[in-house]
Write a structure and sequence with these properties.
The complex is a heterotrimer of chains A (322), B (289) and C (336).
Chain A: E1 6-17, E2 20-32, E3 37-41, H1 48-56, E4 63-72, E5 75-76, H2 82-88, E6 93-96, H3 110-121, H4 126-139, H5 145-148, H6 158-170, E7 176-180, H7 188-205, E8 208-213, H8 216-222, E9 225-230, E10 233-239, H9 240-245, H10 250-256, E11 308-309, E12 315-316
Parallel strand pairs in A: 3-8, 3-9, 6-7, 7-8
Antiparallel strand pairs in A: 1-2, 1-4, 4-5, 9-10, 10-12, 11-12
Chain B: H1 2-22, H2 24-46, H3 78-114, H4 116-131, H5 134-145, H6 149-175, H7 179-186, H8 191-227, H9 239-247, H10 256-283
Helix pairs in contact in B: 1-2, 1-10, 2-3, 2-10, 3-6, 3-8, 3-10, 4-6, 5-6, 6-8, 7-8, 8-9, 8-10, 9-10
Chain C: H1 2-28, H2 33-37, H3 45-55, H4 61-73, H5 87-122, H6 127-141, H7 144-158, H8 183-190, H9 193-230, H10 233-240, H11 245-282, H12 288-297, H13 301-329
Helix pairs in contact in C: 1-13, 5-6, 5-9, 5-11, 5-13, 6-9, 7-9, 7-11, 8-9, 9-11, 10-11, 11-12, 11-13, 12-13
The chains are: A alpha/beta (322), B mainly alpha (289), C mainly alpha (336).
């Protein structure tokens, strides 16, 4: 078996806050192959973004990574020296963020922001850097890149800002791209254009892509495989078709039935009862969904819950699956 | 309504306790403030000597067990004079800040609520007022109005007025168009009722924060004026005057006459600055860092 | 360019207001200048009246203001009663001393406060952050006149390392040839290093006194602004793209934090102008602040009026420069 592009083992992250420790991630596991697109879905607060930030090593000061083995092409990312990891970021693995406008420096021209990345990772003469910047801008299909280079983010539309963000992230041709809600805040047509573009670029360059979203419909359209997260746990992972046809975790089932485009008629829409448990609690149950779950059985309270095989490349963390 | 208010109050008290427990600097601030208030209230009863009684035999004595802070050129006890002065300096600071805070927020609220030409003219006027070096403006005002304690208070209040006007004006003009104010208007509330019941309580928090920061400035300002010989006059003990009197004896090495009132002044301003931070932390959780 | 013009024009009403307020304040000040002028027992009531007419005090307030405006237009700020000199001359002689002191203190404060604020923001809660906080709070709590006296006591009286705290230069030294009127730059021009050294020794204590006062707001604002930009999303993007820490701190966080800091710089400069009066008094510094104070005490209003006008004028100019500087830093500022 070949080494996967990215593997994450037992990733556990806490946040220290004024009101106590928040157990944000608990034992997250997954793998990603080159050329594959993995969707991570879940409600807000389920730990999707924290997972992405932990991989990239850009968590806040308040966050503590308690455990976790993160490997990029077999290399231990967390064991890298800070400078080595800086050079890895943006060169081999990149991330793009939601809110494209605030994710860019408001008082630096977009061309210089891309040039900052290029000159950091592939130093060269100023004309070489300029060519790379223009190339990166062309790759994300920015019209008239020579003129746009000297624009500031406030002069560009949200969609164009996101293209700039993507151009900067992909300027040095990384092999891993994490897209953290890349289309939130953009209008629907722009969303589709941006997503199509990300897919095309990923295919051309054989990039491994992690798409983080709360939008199941979006994930189903662009991903090969989906990882469902709930309250800092991975509850289910399966190829897209399999997951939609045959959800095994009650939470996944609930999610699918709460999305209008996934059910046959509006009358079948169901909200998931309750909300995420308070992650500051010391007595979090082994299954963090148990308190909202219609299928709870006594065995759910026993410790030692893990992802179990539930079909070909389909795994679920549930004691009483569907 | 009453129970909601009680809950809010209880929450405040909890937050207050929490912040005090968490932050040593805040505890220090409230502790020092208590000391200042104690000296303000009980100072005159605690002074070991008559702060005005001269005693030529004991002139210019360095600190000792009899005269803790030493004596001045007339043999007066520096400790007693510094202690007694607390009340006057606090009176000036609180007087000035109360006036500018009440008057400033009322003016600012009215301007922000009604807007229009009057608002534009008033904004220009505050701009003009703020273009002056404020301390010099206060100097000129005291000179124009006459050398009295009350005039020092008025002058200090006037130079601080623009800050409150701007603050209240900004807060009210933002809230004026908000849903709940519109609702009150549709519900038949008059301008006065809307201002007093719906708008002014909302500006209380930023105004109180500004006021607690301002207390320090007010004392600095008043002491600076009397240091220059304006406002309070000798032999009344006041920290600024005491420092000015002591300054003459530095060159001959009698450091205690200027240093102790100077330290008292510093301590008071330091207390109010810490207190301002603490009040901000307690009332405005968003600003916590 | 239109923006600069517009901004210049918008300062005119404020300038007019400033002139009006200065005029009115000196009119309500106690003491009839004519009586003071003629405070010679041998002068009769007619003599006083004649002085009053010669000073234009018999005319209506509006007429007096009009005359005052006309004189201002020609750069005539009136005559000082105490020295008998035109106020413009007096001010021109003293302004360089004040400017030199204020600039020296200002630069000193910036050089200390901004790095301190940045370091505090980079390690919130660390010892350097606590130091920054304590220095800032203490600095803003020290009344300038107490700081000044304390420095004099320690460095002049106790240690004897500072020169006597009177004036800008040892009276036995010659002033360098007049170029700017500021001693240190002038002596540098003349290549007279011993005078530079003497003047530096003289300006150090008053400079530190004023700088301490300005340190606090600058350090606090730098820290707060840096904390804000360091946690901004674009800094996270820069980290995610692997930029070096130096680049992130300087080109991303600091450049963006400059905006509020520049505004605070302007405000601090104006406060320092106000604090001039006290510091110049304590150190017998021959600047316009001390002169204004003496004029106020001797009821000599023309210099006082001129002082307030100059201060307000400098304030307006500083504000203008702050705005223009902010426009240079922030491309968005050109929009509004």
């Amino acid at each position: 078996m070949s080494v996967p592009l990215l593997s994450v083992r037992d990733l556990t992250v806490d946040f220290a806050t004024r009101d106590g420790t928040v157990h944000v991630l608990d034992g997250v596991n997954f793998e990603l192959a080159a050329g594959e697109t993995l969707g991570i879905v879940g409600e807000s607060g389920s730990g999707k973004s924290v997972t992405a930030f932990a991989i990239m090593g850009i968590l806040d000061h308040a966050a503590r990574v308690l455990s976790g083995d993160i490997r990029f092409e077999g290399r231990d990312v967390r064991a890298m020296y800070p400078r080595e990891r800086d050079l890895w970021r943006g060169k081999e693995a990149s991330i793009i963020f939601q809110n494209p406008r605030t994710a860019l420096n408001p008082i630096r021209s977009v061309g210089r922001q891309i040039a900052d990345v290029v000159s950091r990772h592939t130093p060269g003469s100023s004309s070489e850097i300029r060519e790379s910047v223009l190339g990166a801008m062309r790759q994300v299909r920015i019209p008239d890149p020579e003129r746009r280079m000297s624009s500031y983010p406030f002069e560009l539309s949200g969609g164009l800002c996101q293209r700039i963000g993507i151009a900067a992230a992909l300027a040095c041709h990384p092999r891993l791209l994490i897209a953290d809600e890349p289309t939130t805040g953009l209008d629907v047509t722009t969303q589709a254009v941006i997503m199509d573009m990300i897919r095309d670029i990923a295919r051309q360059g054989n990039l491994g892509t992690v798409l983080i979203t709360h939008d199941l419909a979006l994930a189903s359209e662009y991903c090969d495989r989906i990882l469902v997260m709930h309250a800092g746990h991975v509850v289910e992972t399966a190829p897209v078709k399999d997951l939609f046809a045959n959800p095994r975790h009650p939470y996944t089932y609930g999610l699918l039935n709460s999305v209008p485009s996934m059910v046959d008629s509006v009358h079948d829409l169901r909200a998931i009862p309750g909300s995420l448990p308070d992650l500051r609690r010391a007595d979090l149950p082994p299954c963090r969904f148990a308190e909202r779950c219609p299928r709870r059985i006594p065995a759910c309270d026993a410790p030692g819950l893990t992802l179990k095989e539930a079909g070909p490349s389909h795994a679920v963390a549930c004691r009483n699956p569907l | 309504m009453a129970s909601a208010r009680m809950m809010l109050l209880r929450e405040r008290v909890t937050v207050f306790r929490y912040v005090l427990a968490a932050n040593g600097l805040h505890r220090l601030a409230f502790g020092l403030f208590a000391v200042l208030m104690f000296a303000t209230v009980f100072g005159p009863f605690l002074a070991p000597h008559d702060p005005l009684a001269t005693n030529a035999a004991d002139a210019l004595m360095s600190p000792s067990s009899r005269y803790w802070f030493g004596t001045d050129q007339l043999g007066r006890d520096v400790f007693s004079r510094v202690l007694i002065a607390t009340r006057l300096d606090m009176f000036i600071a609180f007087g000035a800040v109360t006036i500018s805070c009440v008057l400033g927020s009322l003016i600012g609220a009215v301007l922000g609520y009604f807007g229009g030409t009057m608002d534009r003219i008033a904004s220009r006027l505050t701009d003009v007022l703020m273009a002056f070096p404020l301390f010099v403006l206060a100097m000129a005002m005291v000179a124009a109005l006459g050398n009295t304690v009350m005039n020092v208070i008025y002058a200090t209040a006037i130079i601080n007025l623009p800050f409150y006007i701007r603050l209240a004006r900004a807060e009210v003009s933002v809230r004026r168009g908000m849903g709940y104010v519109e609702a009150a208007r549709v519900g038949g509330s008059g301008h006065l009722r809307i201002l007093l019941v719906f708008l002014l309580p909302n500006i209380a928090t930023p105004v109180v924060i500004q006021a607690s920061v301002n207390l320090g400035w007010a004392i600095l300002n008043a002491a600076g004026l009397s240091f220059l010989g304006m406002g309070v006059r000798p032999p009344t003990p006041e920290w600024g005057i005491l420092v000015a009197e002591g300054a003459r004896y530095i060159a001959s090495g009698q450091w205690w006459i200027f240093l102790f009132p100077g330290l008292a002044l510093m301590l008071a301003v330091f207390t109010f600055n810490l207190l301002g931070d603490a009040v901000r932390d307690i009332l405005d959780p968003r600003a916590r860092t | 360019m239109t923006r600069i013009t517009w901004r210049l024009l918008s300062a005119i009403p404020t300038l007019f207001g400033v002139i009006l307020v200065t005029f009115l304040i000196t009119r309500v000040l106690p003491g009839d200048p004519a009586v003071f002028f003629a405070s010679n027992p041998s002068m009769s009531a007619e003599d006083v009246e004649r002085v009053r007419v010669s000073l234009g005090l018999d005319k209506s307030l509006l007429e007096q203001f009009w005359i005052y405006l006309g004189a201002l237009w020609q750069g005539d700020l009136g005559k000082s009663i105490a020295t008998g000199q035109p106020v413009t001359t007096e001010m021109m002689n003293r302004l360089p001393a004040s400017v030199e002191l204020t600039l020296f203190a200002f630069v000193l404060a910036i050089v200390i406060a901004i790095p301190l604020g940045i370091m505090a923001a980079l390690r919130p809660g660390s010892w350097i952050d606590q130091t920054c906080r304590i220095v800032a709070t203490l600095g803003v709590s020290m009344p300038t006149f107490v700081t000044g006296l304390l420095l004099i006591y320690i460095f002049y009286y106790l240690l004897g390392v500072a020169p006597e705290p009177t004036g800008r230069l040892d009276p036995f030294l010659f002033k360098p040839p007049h170029v700017t009127g500021m001693i240190i730059p002038d002596a540098l021009f003349a290549g007279d290093l011993s005078t530079v050294w003497a003047a530096l020794r003289q300006i150090l204590l008053p400079g530190i006194t004023m700088a301490l006062f300005a340190l606090a707001p600058l350090a606090r604002m730098t820290r707060a602004a840096m904390l804000g930009t360091l946690s901004a999303e674009f800094v996270r993007t820069a980290r995610a793209n692997g930029l070096s820490r130096r680049k992130i701190v300087m080109s991303y966080a600091f450049r963006n934090a400059m905006l509020p800091v520049v505004t605070t710089l302007g405000m601090t400069f104006s406060y320092m102008l106000g604090a001039n009066v006290l510091v110049e008094k304590v150190f017998a510094w021959p600047g316009i602040g001390g002169f204004a104070l003496d004029s106020l005490i001797s009821l000599d209003y023309a210099p006082l009026q001129a002082f307030m006008l100059i201060m307000a004028g400098i304030f307006l100019v500083v504000n203008l420069m702050t705005d223009l500087l902010a426009g240079l830093v922030d491309p968005r500022a050109g929009l509004n």
